[in-house]
Design goal:
Number of strands of chain B: 5
Distance between the termini of chain B: 20 Å
Largest sheet of chain B: 5 strands, antiparallel
Number of helices of chain B: 3
Helix content of chain A: 25-40%
Shape of chain A: globular
Oligomer: heterodimer
Distance between the termini of chain A: 71 Å
Order of helices and strands of chain B: HEHEEEEH
Low-confidence stretches of chain B: none
Number of strands of chain A: 9
Shape of chain B: flat
CATH superfamily of the domain at 13-114 in chain B: HupH hydrogenase expression protein, C-terminal domain
Number of helices of chain A: 15
Largest sheet of chain A: 5 strands, parallel
CATH superfamily of the largest domain in chain A: NADH:ubiquinone oxidoreductase-like, 20kDa subunit
Mean pLDDT of chain A: 82
Radius of gyration of chain B: 20 Å
Helix content of chain B: 25-40%
Structural class of chain B: alpha+beta
Strand content of chain B: 15-25%
CATH topology of the domain at 13-114 in chain B: Ribosomal Protein S8, Chain: A, domain 1
Chain lengths: 354, 150
């Protein structure tokens, strides 16, 4: 199949009808949180989209981000988009290795100068000249700088690339850093999450393909389409919060009745991601629906923000500061519950210390 | 439907059903306004149900309230789609599935006819060419009734 075909031509060549294409666009617009009225604009943009070259660099990471996207079953929106891009380098899944793999990266850079996209998953160690992670004799730092030099944009995939993530967690022995701490002269889109939701990854790529520009970003460099609202505001358990109905333990009557998990440490009120709407495993569920609070994995330094099971009002910050945060996201009953949660957490600590 | 549904887990407590009404009722009001607009000005409305914070209970309540109307269409393109007119004329429930039968999109469309049901000029032109070629070739190869299920 010619590499210069548009996405529309490619889909038609594969036997996808116009109805199928419109269905694909409707579902894509839905996952991108675009209004349904934007479907026709999306369809027009994707119809004419050309295949971009993508170089995917994996650094200090667990491969969870790559697993999240490549484990999706066919045919999904994820792989319709993902199959369309020209993934010219990804050392975990590419057949080539050693010099041949590095040659493929350099070839893609040379042939698509100024136009290729770099996806980075994993943090970059900076301590001791970055010797704690190397590929083909080069440090991650060297490869990143070399590859990004002529890129159109960088997508920092996962919390490690976006904010340092777990490699950066205290005491950060390798001096791990986010892409944005190193690269200052290129557009960077952060797609955090541990891992990010697969359709969010492809949604960002689809938006770039369809509209030919980078998405609007929030203050932390995340696309607003997916990270514009916090988990708490989009949570189907939110009405329980409004009514002051909280699970106190994971097996009490409140937990069984599906009440709000805030007092069990849910970080939904301070976490911006699409989990509550897009959900996981093809829309099956998400952690809160499965009965576990959000751990805030799409936020910077989530690993060092206190216990996952401590309510926000009893975190590592001063109690007053956390209480103020609670007041900002909820109604009076929520604040009252924050006080109760803090007291119960104090009682728990007292009991443990006794 | 995912295989997870086969796992015998039951969420206890009556509150979820009561809550479902609270979450779904505003959408019914929105649909009522949309129907009025459709009649008055012909303006169509699409509500993306996956873009709203609805639990399974909420969706079941909403779908139950909308009911089942006279017409149901099935589309086979990148997986199945069900286009169902609800018990309210002009209110359609459009559900898109992928090949694995997982829901990838669910919309309430307030319209006379959902757009996806209409034949597209690009497809019509392509099939006009195909029919012309078949007639020119004497209808010898394959069957005219073979429709691509993509």
């Amino acid at each position: 199949m010619p590499s210069n075909m548009t996405l529309g031509e490619r889909l038609r060549k594969q036997g996808v009808s116009r109805r199928g294409f419109l269905k694909f666009c409707a579902a894509t617009a839905s996952m991108m949180a675009l209004p349904p009225t934007a479907v026709s604009a999306l369809a027009a943009g994707l119809e004419k989209a050309r295949r971009p070259s993508v170089i995917w660099l994996s650094f200090q990471e667990c491969t969870g981000c790559a697993e999240a996207i490549t484990r999706s079953e066919a045919p999904t929106l994820e792989n319709l988009i993902f199959d369309y891009i020209s993934l010219d380098y990804q050392h975990t899944i590419m057949a080539a290795s050693g010099d041949a793999a590095e040659a493929a990266r350099e070839k893609a850079m040379h042939e698509n100068e100024g136009k290729y996209i770099v996806i980075v998953d994993g943090a970059i160690p900076l301590k001791d000249d970055g010797i704690y992670s190397t590929i083909a004799g080069m440090t991650n730092l060297q490869i990143l700088k070399d590859t990004v030099k002529h890129a159109a944009a960088v997508i920092s995939l996962g919390t490690c690339a976006a904010y340092g993530g777990i490699p950066k967690a205290s005491p950060n022995p390798t001096g791990a850093a986010a892409v944005s701490e190193i690269i200052k002269d290129k557009p960077i889109i952060n797609v955090p999450g541990c891992p990010p939701i697969p359709v969010v990854i492809t949604g960002v790529i689809a938006q770039y393909l369809a509209f030919g520009k980078l998405p609007e970003l929030d203050a932390l460099g995340r696309p607003k389409a997916f990270y514009g609202q916090n988990i708490h505001d989009r949570c189907y358990r939110r009405p329980f919060y409004e009514r002051g109905l909280f699970a106190e333990t994971f097996d009490d009557e409140g937990a069984k009745a599906g009440w709000c998990l805030w007092k069990l440490g849910c970080k939904g009120p301070i976490t911006y991601n699409a989990c509550a709407v897009t959900k996981w495993n093809y829309g099956t569920s998400f952690p809160i629906q499965a009965g576990h609070g959000c751990i805030g994995c799409s936020e910077p330094d989530f690993w060092d923000k206190g216990g996952f099971y401590e309510p926000l009002s009893a975190g590592t910050f001063s109690a007053g500061g956390r209480l103020a945060a609670a007041a900002a996201v909820g109604v009076a009953v929520g604040v009252g519950s924050a006080v109760l949660a803090r007291n119960s957490q104090k009682a728990l600590h007292h009991k443990e210390g006794a | 439907m995912s295989s997870l549904d086969a796992i015998g887990v039951r969420v206890e407590g009556p509150d979820l059903k009561a809550l479902a009404r609270r979450n779904a009722e505003p959408i019914l009001h929105e649909i009522r306004h949309a129907l009025a607009r459709l009649l008055e000005s012909g303006e169509e409305t699409v509500i993306d149900l996956r873009g709203l914070p609805l639990s399974d209970f909420d969706q079941d309540f909403l779908v139950g309230e909308l009911g089942v109307g006279e017409l149901e269409c099935r589309l086979d393109a990148l997986g199945k789609s069900v286009i169902q007119e609800t018990a309210y004329h002009g209110v359609w429930l459009v559900t898109h599935f992928n090949a694995g039968e997982q829901i990838i999109g669910r919309f309430v469309e307030v319209t006379f006819v959902p757009a996806i049901l209409k034949s597209d000029p690009i497809d019509i032109r392509s099939d006009l060419d195909r029919l012309t070629e078949r007639l020119a070739a004497g209808l010898e190869e394959g069957s005219a009734g073979e429709v691509d299920s993509q």
